[in-house]
Amino acid sequence: MARKVWITGGTGFIGSHTWVELAAKGYYRVFSTDNYLNSYPEVCRRIEAITGTRAVNYPVDIRDSDALREVLRREAPIDAVIHFAAFKAVGESMRHPLRYFDNNFIGLIRVLQMCKEFEIPHFIYSSSCTVYGSHTDEPVSEETPLGAPLSPYGLTKQAGEWMIRFAMREIPMNAVLLRYFNPAGAHPSGLLGEDPRVEDINLVPIIMRVAMGRRDELVIYGSDYPTRDGTCVRDYIHVVDLARAHVLALEYAINTLPSNALEVFNLGTEEGITVLEAVQTAEKITKRTIPHRMGQRREGDVPAIRSKVDKAHRVLGWRPQYTLEDIIKSAWEWEQHRTATSTHLPSSTTGSVANDRTKKDGV
Ligand SMILES: NC(=O)c1ccc[n+]([C@@H]2O[C@H](COP(=O)([O-])OP(=O)(O)OC[C@H]3O[C@@H](n4cnc5c(N)ncnc54)[C@H](O)[C@@H]3O)[C@@H](O)[C@H]2O)c1
C-alpha cells in the first residue's frame, strides 16, 4: 500500500536526496513544505529529472500554522513526517542566536502540533552530532552523555530531541532521531547536490567553490587543535548513504518500532578526517590547487568528533557504502553541473554568490 510522506525542507541538501531515495522505492508518495529560505525552486526539477516522478513542494513557512494546516488538509491522511527544515550553520548561529531559536524551535513546535492535529503516526527527526558537545575521547555512541551545547544551533538540536520526547506524551506517534555527523557529497547522477543560499556553508562545498574559482581561498579555522595535523577532525558521510538511512529509519518506524517508542541512531562512517586531509584529497581528485590559509579557531567548533555506528548497522541494517574519495568526486561533478545549469548563479566563474540572508546582514 502506498504511504504518504511529508518532508519538511524537501528542497534542501539532505531532504532532496532523501526524496530521491524514497521515490525510488515506488511505494512512497512524497510531498514537501519548503519556503526556499536556503534552497531554490529548481531543485524540484532536478528531483523530477532523476526520479521520473512529479515533485510537489508547497513553498510555505513551517512556522505558519494556517498555511501548514491548509496544505495538510489537502494531503491528509499522512503516514509519516521527516523533519529537515531548520537553519544549520554553527557560525551563523553564533551571530544570530535569536534567528536560530525562532526558526528551529518554532518550526519544530508547529510540525509537532500538526502531527497531533493530523494524527501522523511516525516522526523522523534531523538531529546532529553537535548534541554531544565537546568530546575529546572520541568516538561517540548513542550512549555517550550529551554535552553542554557549544552553539545556539547545537542547543536547538539538543533541545529539539527533548521537545520531541516530551511532546510524545500527548501525540500518539513513534519517533526516530537521526544524529548526522558531517554530510557531504552529491547524487551520483551529477544532477543534484548542495546548493545553499547562505555563504556560511560546510567545508566540502567551500573547497569545491575554491577549486572552481568562485572563491579565492579556503580559510581553515584553527591549526592548533590537539589533532594529528592541528586542524579539526570530522566524520564525513555521503549524502546518499544518509538518504538511504532515512528510508530504513522510516521503514523501521512503520514496521518494527512500537507506537509511542523513540529510538536514536548515529549516522557517520566512524572515520575521522582532518580538514587538511580533505583538502589534499580534493586537490588529488579535482587536479586543481586549493589555495588555503590558516585562520583563527571558530567559536562553536569542537576539535574532533567521530561516530560509532554499530547500532544503525545492527538495528536498521544500514552501512555506509561511499568513501571520502566518492564524496569529493561526486561533489566535484555536481559543482561543475551546478555552475553550468543553475539559473541563480552569475554566468562568470569568479566572484561570490550573493544571497538574501547574507545580504541583509552584510556578513
Ligand atoms: N548538512 C549538515 O551538515 C547537517 C548536519 C547535521 C544535521 N543537519 C540537519 O539536517 C537538516 C537538513 O539539513 P540540510 O543540510 O539539508 O540543510 P538545508 O538548509 O540544505 O535544508 C533545509 C531546508 O529547509 C528549508 N527551511 C528552513 N527553514 C524553513 C521554514 N521555516 N519553513 C520552510 N522551509 C524551511 C530551507 O529552505 C532548506 O531548503 C537540518 O535540520 C539540519 O540542522 C544538517
Structure description:
The structure is a single chain. This protein is α/β, with parallel strands linked by helices. The chain folds into 2 domains: 3-184 and 236-267, NAD(P)-binding Rossmann-like Domain (Rossmann fold, 3-Layer(aba) Sandwich); 203-234 and 270-305 and 322-361, UDP-galactose 4-epimerase, domain 1. It contains 12 helices and 13 strands. It has helices spanning 13-25, 42-51, 65-75, 90-95, 97-117, 152-167, 203-212, 239-255, 275-286, 310-316, 324-341, 356-361, and strands at 3-8, 28-33, 56-58, 80-83, 122-128, 174-180, 182-184, 218-221, 233-234, 236-238, 262-267, 273-274, 292-295. A 7-stranded parallel sheet has the order 3-2-1-4-5-6-11, sandwiched between helices. It has a two-stranded parallel sheet with strand order 7-10. The protein starts with a strand and ends with a helix. 47% of the residues are buried. Bound molecules: nicotinamide-adenine-dinucleotide (NAD).
